[in-house]
Design brief:
The structure holds two protein chains of two kinds. By secondary structure, chain A is an alpha+beta fold. Chain A is 29% helix and 26% strand. The chains are: A alpha+beta, B mainly beta. Chain A: It is found in: Cytoplasm; Nucleus, Nucleolus.
């Protein structure tokens, strides 16, 4: 496993002072009262800003902001497959998910760690059903997702961002994929959790706590991928999943608009030149 | 010209009927035609009276070489058995990044087109087994551009030496003169 041997780390028993900042008791209180820190209702999603075609060198790109969570995505391809072993008559889709080193509370490594590799796989699983891979045989499409600021639900935001970027790149798709996540507590379901509300395995190990993220293809009304963490009661998981599906359907017009706007901009810029 | 309708992947275009046929950038599902590209809608009227529904993107469409496609390549390596080349464009559309191709010795001489597959893991397999396919531009050993004199020979204008090449009879529809 490649580790970073060139950087100088501090003495071994030093730790990040931000560990002392977060008060575990107040965190739990936020969730138990049913009231959220930013004043949202449990089923309310954060407002979204979505723009496509922001990276000029990439074939397609998109940028999404959900309050403080900021994610950008670049798509390259269809390109030639360079590795001999991965030959296939269908096209290939590879996804790379990375947190920028400054994006989280605790500084991230430059190289992908296990959590990011995990997210990369989940992203690929969620995007593959939507892309028409038979249209680019022997070629591959690369999706690179960079999280610029992580304030909760990075995977859901990345899913939305990546599918808009793929559409912007002119890759044929059956439908766009909308991502949404929910945090489940023993009493309530919170849609689109922020970083302080989000489920963390080391902190929330009581039974009944967990989270679920899903990707929905709204026009086909099919879930392309669903992932969940923690130990949750079936009723609440069911409720969380259904609410996520509803939210995704509501968000679909935002994605359509972003994609259409980018097509319009390209059209008008081509007429001018 | 009226403002074209912009389509988004997954958008329903129209009902699949006798008069409609789906073209590039669309797919049929459940009796309807859906768009699979982000671009604008094009409807062509066929001779039969059928309308072909397509979604077109603005710049070059994402093409990938397919079987029976005519491609323009640049030769990079020459070997007694085959030569390696870079596929630069498919039809009229130039590719952003070149693909690797291979022309085997037997595929240059044959006049019948065998069933060539799409190639293997390394590269695409190409053939020049038609009258109109072959060498378009070549440089002689002296460095000057060769002029074709027959279907298999080219002459260097400087040294008057003749070199063997399988010359292509390029169709006029594929030629675009610079400046027009």
């Amino acid at each position: 496993m490649p580790t970073d041997s060139r950087r100088i780390n501090g003495p071994e028993d030093s730790f990040d002072p931000s560990v002392l900042l977060v008060d575990k008791k107040t965190r739990e209180k936020i969730l138990r009262d049913g009231k959220r820190k930013d004043g949202r209702k449990p089923e309310q999603v954060r407002p979204i800003f979505l723009k496509a075609g922001i990276i000029s060198q990439a074939r397609g790109s998109a940028y999404i902001e959900q309050n403080e969570t900021k994610v950008m995505c670049a798509v390259y391809g269809p390109r030639e497959v360079t590795k001999k072993e991965e030959f296939s008559m269908k096209g290939q889709l590879t996804c790379e998910f990375k947190f920028a080193t400054f994006s989280c509370r605790v500084r991230r490594q430059y190289q992908q760690d296990n959590e990011e590799r995990d997210y990369s796989c989940q992203l690929q699983d969620a995007l593959e059903p939507a892309v028409r891979m038979d249209k680019f045989p022997k070629a591959q499409v690369n999706v690179y997702v960079t999280v610029l600021q992580n304030d909760g639900s990075p995977l859901a935001a990345s899913l939305t961002c990546a599918s808009v970027a793929l559409a912007n790149a002119g890759i044929e798709m059956y439908d766009l994929v909308v991502g949404c996540s929910a945090r489940i507590t023993p009493s309530e379901v919170f849609i689109d959790p922020t970083e302080s509300e989000d489920y963390k395995a080391e902190n929330d190990n009581e039974a009944g706590n967990g989270s679920v993220t899903l990707g929905l293809m709204p026009s086909l009304n099919q879930v392309s991928a669903i992932t969940s963490k923690g130990e949750v009661e079936f009723e609440l998981l069911n409720k969380g999943t259904k609410q996520c599906v509803d939210v995704c359907q509501k968000l679909y017009p935002v994605l359509q608009q972003a994609v259409a706007k980018a097509v319009e901009d390209r059209l008008s810029s081509d007429h001018v030149t | 010209m009226a403002a074209p309708t912009i389509c988004v992947p997954g958008q329903r275009i129209c009902r699949l009927e006798e008069t409609c046929k789906q073209g590039n950038g669309t797919y049929p599902r459940n009796g309807y035609i859906y768009s699979s590209l982000a671009g604008y809608l094009h409807t062509f009227e066929d001779e039969d009276g059928k309308s072909l529904i397509e979604v077109k993107t603005q710049e070059e469409q994402n093409v990938v070489p397919s079987v029976d496609a005519i491609v323009t390549t640049r030769i990079t390596n020459v070997n007694p058995r085959f030569c390696k080349c870079l596929i630069l464009s498919v039809g009229k559309i130039p590719l952003r990044e070149p693909f690797r191709g291979q022309i085997r010795k037997e595929d240059v001489r044959a006049t019948e087109k065998d069933k060539l597959s799409l190639g293997d893991a390394h590269s695409y397999i190409l053939s020049t087994a038609e009258n109109e396919l072959g060498v378009v531009i070549a440089t002689s050993e002296a460095g000057a551009t060769l002029e074709p004199i027959s279907w298999c020979k080219m002459k260097c204008p400087k040294t008057m030496a003749e070199e063997f090449r399988k010359v292509a009879k390029v169709q006029p529809k594929y030629v675009q003169y610079a400046g027009t």
